[in-house]
Each structure stands twice: as structure tokens, then as C-alpha cells.
Amino acid sequence: MKALTRRQWMRGGFGAAALGGGAAAVRWAQEAGLVPPDASGLYGPGHALTYAAQRWLAGDALAREFPRSEISAKPFANSKAPEIAEYTQQQAKGFADWRLEVDGMVARPRSFSLADLRAMPQRSQITALTCEEGWNYVAEWSGVRLDEVLREVGASAQAKFVFYFSLQPEWWDSVDIREAQHPQTILALGMNGGRIPEAHGGPLRMRVPRQLGYKSVKWIRRLTVSDSARGFGKGLGSAAAEFGYSWYNGI
Ligand SMILES: Nc1nc2c(c(=O)[nH]1)N[C@H]1C(S)=C(S)[C@@H](COP(=O)(O)O)O[C@H]1N2
Ligand SMILES: [Mo]
Description:
The chain is an alpha+beta fold. Helices cover 27% and strands 23% of the residues. α1 (6-20) packs across α3 (44-58) and α2 crosses α3 (44-58).
């Protein structure tokens, strides 16, 4: 993500805005009840149009799943494990104390250990991770459906977003409730049959295979269920959106 200039990114967003006729696109999205948190501002019409159109057309379609023979031999990690004291300490303990805190609009806020998550029903899927920079790899991911965790804590029927936070303070994002409940949206604990390598987000990462790689935030520590994107950073739904990347990025 670092290497993508704002200009490169703009080609996508600006094109969509021109195509949608700006304000008209936002109006249509509003009528369809499909307005992303980053719909305001210069690139907002493009974001709103993309989000509404994709939700409209693709609905709850599944991301492509691949045969085992297509798993990439050398998956590329876009970053190293975080050089943060807390991470190094956790690493030294084999992540035995890693917790996932779940709060917000839930009946039973709680903290899950990795063992708690492993004891829940598991799902495995072989999907592509596609970076906005143009590279991708195919890997098998296993873990617990985000929806399963939401049911466990009793997420409110009014919930509209699930926010997720990395140990890296600058990395947080959110998905709408439909994406959160989608069967392929998982909190991954395993990759290619083993634990997730540290550079790929171990011990816990979000996998949102229907969207670009940057939604699949690594080193997840906390989830917050909310009915609004307000109150999280600038209210655009993600740290990425604050850097100019669209909050919704269906592929
Ligand atoms: N915490 C955190 N999550 C992150 C990133 C990061 O730098 N930090 N990079 C994102 C981007 S831009 C991509 S493309 C994918 C890359 O996943 P990989 O390292 O498994 O290739 O992770 C995403 N999640
Ligand atoms: Mo990326």
C-alpha cells in the first residue's frame, strides 16, 4: 500500500466518479440504502457508486475458491512482523496470551483466547489475496467465521459495521454487517495448513476475500460492533480511507 501514489489510486476513483455523474451517483446510492462511510468529499461519489453498484450486482456472491494445486508456492508478505515491544513479548510466549477483545453493540462483550477461537467451528478456504499494487497470491486460510464470533457475543440487530483493530495502531478498518456475516469473512488462525506466519499476520488476521488485500488487516486484537462509522477516526470507516483508499473495495 505504501508504494501506491495518490495519483495512481485516483485513476480508479476519479473514473468511477465521472462515470456516475457525481451527485447523481450519491443520490442513487442513498435511495438504495447503500452509502459507504467515505461517501463525502472529493472522491465520495466514486466510492458511493462503486459500493452501491457492487452490492447491487454481486450481492452475497462468493469469492472464487481455488483447488489446492493453485496454492502459491511463495506467498508474498507485504510487511514484516511488527517491531513493537508488545508483539515481540507475545512472540516469545508463542502467542499464548494473545486475546481478541470484542465490544460495542453486543449483549455479551468478552475477550477470546486463541484457544477459545480454535474451539469454535472452523472454516477453511483457498482464496486469492490481491493487493491494490497489482500482485496477488493464493493461500488456504482457516479460522472462525466473523459471523460466528458475532453470534457468540450477541451482536445487536441494529449493528451496521464491525470495526477491527490491529496491534499496529495505524491499522484499523471495518466492514458492513453484510460482509461481516458473509461465510467467507473469517478471523484466520491458520494459513496453508499451519499457523499463520508472523509476517502474514499471525497469530490472528482478518480475511475478507471479497475485497482488496488491505481490508485483510493483520495482527488483530479487537473488534467493535457499531451502528455508525462516526467516532472512529475521521468517520470514514477505516485508516485506509483516511489515506485516500476507498473503504469498500470489492473485487
Ligand atoms: N496490520 C497490517 N495489516 C495489513 C497490512 C499492514 O501493513 N499492516 N497491509 C495490508 C495490505 S496493503 C495487504 S495487500 C495485505 C498483505 O497481506 P500479506 O502480507 O499476507 O501479503 O495485508 C494488509 N493488512
Ligand atoms: Mo496492499
